[in-house]
């Protein structure tokens, strides 16, 4: 994920793919600590007005900004670090460590000027810290799954593959206060990408002293609005306000507690009881009841996240386009989005989600859009028969899926959709926790599977590169030279209108060849106590805690 990262958000079919942000939607682990909070205090009590108790999906695997993957990790890291750019409450991009930036006419050189700022140990934040962060992002083992998002940087892909040293990366410190990015193609979304935690600077002095242990609370050095105070694995992560942050005077909240909250129903109860102030998901089926019993708590919007089905092209079944077409046609997207979920999600007949300002999402769609379910199923049967399947050669497959969020509701519906094609279509389900699920996808150890991608860039290219040949997020190994050429033409086009037209052509080809097939555009659902101010739900899933406060704290000022 941002994605945010994504989205995952919820990232929630946050995106979040549990790779990052791939911003895919992620696992929630509810812990006894959340329930105990009701007995030990909450943000409404005296002395706690500047503290937030936050339900945050899953236990972080890491908080190292250059290595993390998920939106649940990125959400914490965004409070610990600040990149060259940052987000406002509505998701817009604003200056962060950089006060300004300029772009060359061809869009290939960006220059950022840094503000005066310090790390929490008093060391000045310098341009070299950003260069070091980008070097770590490109060379870390194992890599963040979001690393391919940054392949528009000059030599990034070659550095990642080990063909070139890190010093060849097109990120340079021109002087202590100036960072230069050289790109291999225009990337008008660069300021957006640089808000994501993966692009954060790193405290070189702390890493030199402690190695990978620099991220532990006792060694932690950050440049963001908060510091890592305590991390009890499986329990909570506690952040405290950073007095050396350049804008510390405007940061209201002094303490943030993040809890893994897998069970959204239990988390909802905790929010209602006041033991959690907010939770970054809730069951869509509960929306009407929540609005009635907890007025002002539910926030829902269309997220920039697509849940889709990945076909493993290494499998002989999926090398045949007709099989991919048949399984795509049989999916009853309208029923899943509007009846099973009924949470603001929309049926997805295209890959790029709506709400991306630079792209007319939904303009090109699957050819089966508008057909009845009965007609689509009949066509699916004919396609499979033409591919050689039938009573004497059944199509037997296993569909892998995440056991988080609303996915367990969707998987049996998909199974029923496919098995309605014919008695000789036999689909079994295999559910796993997010980390296990996505690790299997990365290894190519699956037949076909559910996945989700939430935006980091808020740009069409991020979603379309999911099936780029050799792309870091192309789990299924799909390859199509025609598609790659169309995508590369779009990527190299600087003119915004021509760029959009080229991307539309590429998406049309993607929907024709079906390296993946979209299922839904996820809604983003948050539960937030009305006492919290400065919170705004938005499609990117960016909710900076440095801009939040509470009504009690504001009254006390």
Explain what this protein looks like in three dimensions.
The chain is of the alpha+beta class and 557 residues long. The chain has 17 helices and 19 strands. Strand 8 (226-232) and strand 9 (236-241) form a beta hairpin. Helix 9 runs antiparallel to helix 11 (373-386) and helix 15 packs antiparallel against helix 16 (496-513). Residues 1-46 have low confidence and may be disordered.
Task: Provide a concise account of the structure shown.
The protein has 557 residues and is of the alpha+beta class.
Largest sheet: 11 strands, mixed
* Count of DSSP-assigned helices: 17
Query: In terms of structural class, how would the helical and strand content be classed?
Result: alpha+beta
Question: The CATH topology of the largest domain is what?
Answer: Dipeptide-binding Protein, domain 3
Identify low-pLDDT runs. 1-46
CATH class of the largest domain: Alpha Beta
Q: Can you tell me the CATH architecture of the largest domain?
A: Roll
Strand content: 15-25%
CATH level 4 superfamily of the largest domain? Dipeptide-binding Protein, Domain 3
Quaternary state, please?
single chain
The average pLDDT value, as a whole number, equals 90
Count of the domains = 3
Q: Give the helix level as a range of percent.
A: 25-40%
Number of strands: 19
Shape: globular
> Alpha-carbon distance between the termini?
36 Å
Radius of gyration: 23 Å
Topology:
Elements: H1 32-40, E1 51-55, H2 71-80, E2 85-87, E3 93-95, E4 98-103, E5 109-114, H3 127-139, H4 156-161, E6 171-175, E7 178-182, H5 190-193, H6 204-210, E8 226-232, E9 236-241, E10 255-259, H7 264-273, E11 278-279, H8 287-293, E12 298-311, H9 321-329, H10 333-341, E13 346-347, H11 373-386, E14 395-402, H12 407-419, E15 425-432, H13 434-443, E16 448-454, H14 460-464, H15 481-491, H16 496-513, E17 516-528, E18 532-533, E19 549-550, H17 551-556
Parallel strand pairs: 1-10, 1-11, 14-15, 14-16
Antiparallel strand pairs: 2-3, 4-5, 5-7, 6-7, 8-9, 9-10, 11-17, 12-16, 12-17, 13-17, 18-19
Helix pairs in contact: 1-7, 9-11, 15-16
